[in-house]
Amino acid sequence: MTSVHQHPGHALEGPSLDDLRAQWSDELRSRGRRVTKQRIAVLTAVHRHQHSPAENIVTYVRDELPNITVQSVYVVLADLTDIELLRKFQPPNTPALYETRASDNHHHALCVVCGRIEDVDCAIGEAPCLTPSETHDMSIIAADVVYRGICQSCRSPDEGTGSPDPHAAHAAPTSSGLTAH
Length: 181
Hints:
Blueprint: H1 17-30, H2 37-48, E1 52-53, H3 54-64, H4 70-82, E2 87-89, E3 97-99, E4 106-111, E5 117-121, E6 146-149
Parallel strand pairs: 4-6
Antiparallel strand pairs: 1-3, 2-3, 4-5
Helix pairs in contact: 2-3, 2-4, 3-4
């Protein structure tokens, strides 16, 4: 299974899970969707495991709904993304990742050593957040930024913010760019 290293407690800060489930139920209804155990299970899995690829979300959902099919999870992910209850993004060299922080304009910081991903608030606060030098006759509505760097855990203690220690005991990123555990 592919995984993303996250700051402990990252997804669990804020409202209780019961409060979130009630909020998600209201939002599903307001968007013309039925509240189903599959939709709530997918939202819960993504909330608990922000920035996860679909294959991991299937595993997490199966903890709650053991008989759900892979196809059902993918269909629910696509639907929840279409109605903007989930956000799907794809950093370079990784599979698409999902998060529940879908209603604001934010970006991501990616550790190129371990694959850790963290949210970065937009400096301007509103889309598109950046002004392109040329619009090519397009009305720009958003700019997706991925900051790539090396997290504190992956930096060599004697190098500060320099290159990672090649002998450090960190998991190497997989071909997807995320750390395999």
